[in-house]
Amino acid sequence: MEKIDFLKSAANIYDELVEWRRHFHRNPELGFEEYETSAKIKEFLKEEGIPYVETAGTGICATIQGGSIDEEKEKVIALRADMDALPLKDKKNCDYSSTVEGKMHACGHDAHMTILMGAAKILNGIKNSLKGTVKLLFEPAEETVGGARFMIEEGVLQNPKVDAVIGLHVAEGIECGKIGIKKGVVNAASNPFNIKIIGKGGHGAHPEDTVDPVVIASHVIVALQSIVSREIPPTDPAVVTVGSIHAGSAQNIIPEEVNISGIIRTMKSEHREYVIKRVTEIVEGITKTMRGSCEIDIQESYPCLYNNDYMVDMVKECAKEIIGADNVIDMDKPSMGVESFAYFSLERPSVFYFLGSGNAEKGITDPAHGSFFDIDENCLPIGVAIQCRAAYEYLNGETE
Question: What is the domain class of 6-187+304-396 according to CATH?
């Protein structure tokens, strides 16, 4: 198989990459509001002659058709980038700080879009040598409801049928020039919940005339913590967090109800089902025992993100060619955070890896979802090169 120097190709468009990334960083838009962001990407695709369709509102699915004409044997690889920003004030003092008050690309999606555009530019330039098709998936609303599931429902993994998907995320905790990658479960599944505990209100001096929902809620909250500590194997990560409690209006009034909200995070589908079941049983059991009633709403949010072993090995080998074996880190622990790329990973063999974007010498260490988040832009051509090499390898190499 021909060995193309994708890192050199990416380095040649470094100035464009920086320009694109800083444009997106200056002009952040929230989920399903990415109108100008989408317009910028479409303008680029038109200039490159890459056909595209709109999907999931502000999302985009573009296609680079390779030189192969054998549709039965042709393979299709998808590369994905998320588009939305966060409702957060940008406190950095630099010439590419957000110009939109209260909105900021604080999670690196500006870099992800830039890397996908860079990969598109390079792969489109060699499309006649590709033995298959590359789909470019620009996903809206990753930070909120997960635009991936809407894109899938609208058929982005069909016509032509996608065989595998690759995604990445910049990581300030990994030094620029390195990547982190893991087999198996990479990110947790999430189930936000809202619980209303209903009692009988009255005077704080006469609790005997009431059914105190505050006391019931206190028992519920403590009991919920026993699910993870006593019912889930200690070797398997899981979390039940109560993040909000609202009740009452005065010191001497026992309220009618208490509202509790929180999240469930699990790493296995069987644990996800079990914890949901036990939360329901515990809340219903305690409230009934203590003469109250309840309303429980446990929402289906992002599933677990699973990396396919073969896809991981392929990307690792591609990355080693570009940055060296010593700079490819095997991650041993999954993240309890969620990632909407998980929806793609449930549909097709997928790999999601972490592109080092931190640089302590430059002071680039602030965490994602923080007001001072930034990246070392030297990570951009590395991300482009790895995505290009992986796509090329999948289409032109001896893949499964």
Answer: alpha beta
